[in-house]
Amino acid sequence: MILQFIKRDPAWKMTPRLMGAAVTAAMLYALLHQGWAPMIVFPIYMVLYLRAVPQQRVTFFEAALPVSGRDLFLARGLALLGMIWLPALAGTAVLLLAGSGQDRLANIAIIALVLTLSVLAPLSIRIKEFAAPSWLAMCSPVIAAMTIPLLTLGQPLLVAGICAAAVLAVGGLVWSTVPEVFQCGSPDARVERLTRGNAAPAIPWWPVIRSLFPWQTAIFIPISLIWSATGEWIFGPMYLMMAYNQIRINTRWTLALPIRRRVLLAASVIPLLLVLAGGAEFGMLTGKAQPVRDLIQLGDPNNFRTTGAIDVWVNKAFWRYAPDGRVPAVQAPWGETTQPRSWRVLGLAFYNPYSVAQNNSLEFQDWQWARATERIYGRPVEARYLKKAVDAGLRPVTLSPRMQVLSILFLVFSGLCWAWAIEMLAWHRWTRLSAPVRNTLTYSIVMLPIGLLLADVVLGSGPGSISRSALIRGLLRLSEILPANLGLLAILGLVPLTGMWWLLERQAAVAETPLQKVQAQSIFDRG
């Protein structure tokens, strides 16, 4: 009987997808060897986690069955434990098979313990009701994310011991207070509560405003701001448009109101686009979007030399393409030469025109550095004075006013494309397809940026990101082609934005918003 309850539990149904997210995160860490790499999958994990409704104890259907409250709670608890520990085991297996990250295995177990604790703790609140308050569903991943810095203090066993003891204590407390039957009505229903519940809000449009800004968007907006401010303009729009999808679901009820769909669409999308553009502009104004180390370094990060001349590494956006596959030699004015190494991706050859061989002279190294800084910053700057010049206000060409305008236009256009993709997947013609086909299409689109990151690793070797460098290179090329006047540049940029908005409006007019499945806390649902 308990097994049947586990099989129909939403947490158990989400477990295979969470295992896929955990495997992807482990693969990213094994390939990139960077601690931040698994965080790319974090928003996807959050979506799947919330779809498992972790704050829910039982449903109306389960509460109506002749089954004790402890049996129902036991089935729910086992499903939640499987949702946490099976993905952790899957990620551990991938790291073991890859032969890397063994030092992180203990941290995975500790984070799983913290997740277990933060899932059990909310379930101890209002234990007699069908569900804990819905906002507590955010506690588990937030607490787990806050625990990660503690793991860097070098006391993982202490953290693990505290978490394990807390899990046993909280689990025992919850189990001892589980009622025989769960409450399906309010024990203290009063006239005052009914009167207060039926009262109209002071602001008539307040319910609509709340639907346009649901608390679930707090999951994605901060992450999107971080991505946008740090120059990751491929991932930022994707995570922000996940917030748009939640807004679509929350505003479904407003379709019965006398509100035009295009007005509702504008109220849903434009604030998100402003957040996206504001985060990117903040990153560009502060220099966080393109720090010096991402543009130019004295020494190849992947192949640093301790003897002879030091190589000049520049971002791949400033590399050159060898049309026939033959990399030309670079010659200094006094005749000294070097032969850059070719770097191939998808059969195309690229090379760093500012590279320095080990047997080159120090004068050649300084000459290449001067050429590189002139290309990137507009004037030659000695290596020892570059940081001081940047602190004094020197900005690279990638953060010039023209590039800022083009970058904002690209981000807004990218956000509109993601919104259009969400509306396309909600088109009534797509709903005729089977659920597996629709899910495959949805996850394929969401995983596209992660696929680009994996392509950076698989398609070529060398420092830097292919996708990010290709984006910067494309924007630089557009900056060279388009008119020099910023006003005219902005007007020309509005043309594709207007066209994309028109397509989005047309697609939103024929899209269907799915009905959100909400489990009530009791007959008197607190919402």
Structure, described:
By secondary structure, the chain is mostly helical. The chain has three domains: 1-184; 205-289 and 396-527, no CATH class; 292-395, no CATH class. The protein is 59% helix and 4% strand. Strands 3-7-6 form a three-stranded antiparallel sheet, with no helix packed on it. The protein has a two-stranded antiparallel sheet with strand order 1-2. Helix 5 (69-98) packs antiparallel against helix 6 (105-123).
Blueprint of the fold:
Layout (H helix, E strand, L loop, with lengths): L1 H6 L2 H23 L9 H10 L8 H4 L5 H30 L6 H19 L15 H13 L4 H22 L13 H8 L7 H7 L8 H9 L5 H16 L10 H26 L5 H4 E3 L13 E3 L5 E3 L7 E2 L5 E2 L3 E4 L2 E4 L10 H16 L5 H9 L9 H25 L9 H12 L1 H11 L7 H16 L4 H25 L17
Antiparallel strand pairs: 1-2, 3-7, 4-5, 6-7
Helix pairs in contact: 2-3, 2-5, 5-6, 6-7, 6-8, 11-12, 11-13, 12-13, 12-17, 13-17, 17-20, 17-21
List the defining traits of the structure above:
527 residues; mainly alpha; 3 domains; three-stranded antiparallel β-sheet; 7 strands; disordered C terminus
